[in-house]
Amino acid sequence: xxxxxxxxxALVLGASISGEWAARLLLARGGRVTLLDESExxxxxxxxxRVRSAGGDVLFGKxxxxxxxxxxxxxxxxxxxxxxxxxxxxxxNIPVISELELGACYWRGKMIAITGSxxxxxxxxxxxxxxxxxxxxxxxxxxxxxxLCQLVLETPDxxxxxxxxxxxxxxxxxxxxxxxxxxxxxxxxxxxxxADLAEYKQLKFRMFANMTPGDYALLPxxxxxxxxxxxxxPCYRFGNQKESDWCYEQGVIVHRQVPLxxxxxxxxxxxxILGLAAxxxxxxxxxxxxxxxxxxxxxxxxxxxxxxxxxxxxxSKGVTxxxxxxxxxxxxxxxxxQMVKKPVRLIAGGLLKExxxxxxxxxxxxxxxxxxxxGQCAGEMEDAWASTVPCEIYGTIDRAVAAAAQEAQSxxxxxxxxxxxxxxxxxxxxxxxxxxxxxxxxxxxx
Length: 446
Known about the structure:
Layout: E1 9-13, H1 17-28, E2 32-37, H2 45-53, E3 57-60, E4 72-75, H3 84-91, E5 96-98, H4 99-106, E6 110-115, H5 120-133, E7 138-142, H6 148-154, E8 160-164, H7 167-170, E9 180-183, H8 197-206, E10 216-220, E11 235-239, E12 246-249, E13 252-255, E14 260-263, H9 274-287, H10 292-301, E15 310-314, E16 320-323, H11 330-339, E17 344-348, H12 361-367, E18 368-374, H13 378-385, E19 391-395, H14 397-407, E20 413-416, H15 429-443
Parallel strand pairs: 1-2, 1-4, 2-3, 4-5, 6-8, 6-9, 7-8, 9-10, 10-11, 11-12, 16-20, 17-18, 17-20, 18-19
Antiparallel strand pairs: 12-13, 13-14, 15-16
């Protein structure tokens, strides 16, 4: 913890939950703070009241930064590097930091940081839940959970913060320093935000940049660090290969050097996809001081987050319905297809973020009886996949669910795993998943 932002003159860009708590932390440390947001919606009224009552200024609906001396700017992750406000800060030589960076500067406890292209939130929740199960007070924070600045103000005496870290946050987090850090996986994502895959990878590895020899870094076996890791920091590997330090084998997690074995049979994690996450989580939690038996108990009792390969139920025909609305990339859809019971009837489509649809064809051939296409990119998906698997465009999730309910047979799985963003038809993946669940409960009598 350091106090480098005591009494500063600060701008906070974005009145999201992270922006509000960044402003409140700076005000609590004697700062003079102005919170800005481009919109003027009624949902911001309560935020404005709270920030003003704490002593801050609020400017909504503005297009330019206010004049005057500014020591630091805290930017929401929503603001890309080319945003006019970020460019204005650069022109005025105003340092720009993230809410995560600010919170980390004042965090007194220890920190576990988890990044990756998919599955971060579930693992953050699992690690936090299991630390608490072991009597080690912890909270999820960061991109999932509670803003780190809020933890600093409300629960500063926690032993651990388990922080989900996004590539967006790392654009402005120059001194961020976790004691334990994990890169869970790495696949193309957010290339509409970042210049290219190389920049995306650099941002993911930036989370490790300030770690020191006493810290603990964990990477997937086979992922090249390309010189982005500090060679003085011990780096361990997890995977399903023999050379992995932590290895998932069917039903068990094995540490090859100790030796150590943790049984995870018949848990949510016992499959080829989540087993790798379980191997990484075992390494993290044992390093943090959680006893082996408590880690195993955590696996057995864990309840996954909504809309992440979430089984809604099995209907009277023997058809299993699964909500994976959180799958906003095709790699996430690929993972879901490998996790659920086969054969699959897949509902996919929406606002496509990627260009390469062909890589999924072999997996569709192996797993899927039919694809029910919805949303803006339905035609593109049909063009890419129809030669491999039967595809039909339904347009909306309502029509897709109705058709799947008519056609699905016993022992099949109907899987919503769109592989796309939701914003062509829904406000969020949550709304999409909730609509799917409502429809399923109605047509399948669940």
